Amino acid sequence: MYATTLTRDPFATYRQIDAVGRTTTDGPGLVQLLYKELVAALRAAAWASDNRQYATKSDRVTRATAILFALEAGLDFERGGAVSETLARLYAGARRTIVDASVGQDGSIFRTTADTLDEIAQAWRTASAA
């Protein structure tokens, strides 16, 4: 993964390595970081969409979609049961919404999705602090 990115954008590779270095080895720390990056990517996609910055929008949509796949891949369906199933449906729905919105120019869809996911991120932060 890093080698492919390095040939395209060394600064992006540094940011990826930096993000990995900032995570803790525990699951909640990684999940919180992924949500933070996801919400930031969606808000950047909204700005890019509103300002006709199509390359930036595409990059941020790709990042948000990849993060949603990573969050879904990290679900423990055996221990999480119905919560994991609900989150999987939420992530899949968010991906569909984001991909559908990526062909348009309405940044509000990205903002609304970011706001919804930020509420879930807040719940993760609260649960982790307890």
From TrEMBL:
Keywords: Bacterial flagellum biogenesis, Cell projection, Chaperone, Cilium, Cytoplasm, Flagellum. The keyword Chaperone applies. GO terms for cellular component: cytosol. SUPFAM superfamilies: Flagellar export chaperone FliS (SSF101116). InterPro entries: FliS (IPR003713), FliS_sf (IPR036584). It is found in: Cytoplasm, Cytosol. GO terms for biological process: bacterial-type flagellum assembly; bacterial-type flagellum-dependent cell motility. Belongs to the FliS family. PANTHER family: FLAGELLAR SECRETION CHAPERONE FLIS (PTHR34773). This is Flagellar protein FliS. It comes from Sphingomonas aerolata. The lineage of its organism: Bacteria, Pseudomonadati, Pseudomonadota, Alphaproteobacteria, Sphingomonadales.
